[in-house]
Amino acid sequence: MPITKETPLVIPAAAEKILPHTWLSELVVNAPNASHGYMSLKLTAFDSDSEEDPDPANSEMLHLDFWEVIANVPEAATAMQAVFDAVPAIETYYREGLLEEAPIEEAP
């Protein structure tokens, strides 16, 4: 039931913006096996020529069947193969970083 406010909320008009670019602000892949999985993409419209950060209010979430995308979008299959190929190097990078941050124990 609407209640009339004594002082109405006034939202000022905003200037029009053109957002010609997309920022991939979130990418999630969950593929527990070779036949089941999903991927989620958070795509945020923005203008890379401006000083403004992408505004989450201009985002769209895509929820997709991972293996269906891989089977039907050749660019996605190529990109994911590149990620799979990079996993050993990423693991090495991660482990080396952990070793550098590990505390050094001094002898008694």
Would you write up a description of this structure?
The protein has 108 residues and is an alpha+beta fold. The protein has one domain. 32% of the residues lie in helices and 24% in strands. The protein contains two helices and three strands; from the N terminus they run E-E-E-H-H. It has helices spanning 66-72, 74-101, and strands at 21-30, 38-46, 59-65. It has a three-stranded antiparallel beta sheet. The protein is extended, with a radius of gyration of 23 Å. The mean pLDDT is 90.
Per-chain topology:
Elements: E1 21-30, E2 38-46, E3 59-65, H1 66-72, H2 74-101
Helix pairs in contact: 1-2
- Tally of helical runs: 2
Number of strands: 3
What is the structural class? alpha+beta
Beta fraction of the residues? Answer: 15-25%
| Overall residue-averaged pLDDT value | 90
* Largest beta-sheet details: 3 strands, antiparallel
In short:
The protein has 108 residues and is α+β, with helices and mostly antiparallel strands. 32% of the residues lie in helices and 24% in strands. The model has no long low-confidence stretch (mean pLDDT 90).
Task: List the keywords.
108 residues, alpha+beta, 3 strands
